[in-house]
Give the backbone structure.
Amino acid sequence: MAIKRSWAEPYKIKMVEPVYITTEAHREKVLAEAGYNTFLLRSEDVYIDLLTDSGTSAMSDRQWAGLMMGDEAYAGSRNFYHLEETIQKYYSYKYIVPTHQGRGAEHILSQILISKGDYLPGNMYFTTTKLHQELAGGTFVDVIVDEAHDSESLFKFKGNVDLNKLEALIDKVGANKIPYVCIATTVNMAGGQPISMANLKQVRELTSKHGIKIIHDMTRVAENAFMIQQNEAGYQDKSVAEIVYEICALTDGATMSAKKDAMVNIGGFLAVNDPDLFDKARNMVVVYEGLHTYGGMAGRDMEALAIGITESVQDAHIRARVGQVKYLGEQLLKTGVPIVKPIGTHGVFLDAKKFLPHISQDKFPAQTLAAEIYLDSGVRAMERGVVSSGRNAETGQHNFPKLELVRLTIPRRVYTQAHMDVIAESVSNVYERRDSIKGMKMIYEPEYLRFFQARFEKL
């Protein structure tokens, strides 16, 4: 008989940061002061922070050691060349432009490739990507499969592109009005859902036929590769590193927020294969970010990033990373809490429409739910619904996405299984008293990316 083996993290803890459990009265006070927006809470008032996995992961001893190897030369830092070699080795791209984080890369790319009147198809929008496309004069078009908008669907590759939708857009507007197709690995707004290799190959075949580029939003590419390894025929015997390289090699360039997969606190890059595009990007980076051999990054951060990339594609690491997310999701499913299925890779996404069915979407159920979870336990989550979706540029009305979600985002190598249990208990406790929860109204709305700074009042 086979011996059962318990699961455990492939690392040991060498340093700790104390956190404090606050009282409900204190949480109620600071939540009201923050306008019931979890982004406006002070981190010192948070017990378990699931706001984001961006820049919040724990670096390894090797990454910390790398910080001491920082070459802070203004030009030609050796850390840049180490980073360049690492990206070429693991991600396949030829030319690298470092930026302070992913949105710096999105800005440069959008200004170079997008003209007014262009269309940008993608496998669901992401907030900053879509805004940069719009500011450059483009229009985002969602060409993701319908299953991605259904939280109950068990389809394993909800990040897939619907080839019929993409081809219909090409036929309608013409290939010359589509500078690139944006492919995200994984798809954040769908609940951390992956795209399959087979689908990506089909997208590559279609775009090549029409001379359209594929730009890869590769923020969580290692997590996507792990899901391919686990769920797609023909990839079970391939390493995550091999699958990552194959994904990247099917695309023409990439934007990377290295604060996720690569486990650094700050940093990103734009990567391309076209030397002319690289030349334009290298010219722009010195205007908006910094010299082309550091962009918006210090030498020490580039060194930590190069090491983090190497660690991010290790099978043991990514198995534990996604495994912790899966554990939390399974705990919530046991108590009947409605979540996006299948469980994603970087967080568990609560279905706020099903959690709070009595609160209409114009009363911000996801924003309300995130606030209630913080009030219950000091666990900070974030909204991914109507607030994040913004307003229709023509009508001025709220965009009402099919998915109204609260994201419980798990930082890498930070929390233990005991923390996951505390989170699950808190969410389940809020679910038990869900009928008593009322919605909210927005009392302050910034012009751009309103979910970061909007303020609310309880109804």
About this structure: The chain has two domains: 24-53+315-458, 61-312. The two ends are 59 Å apart (CA to CA). The chain has 16 helices and 14 strands.
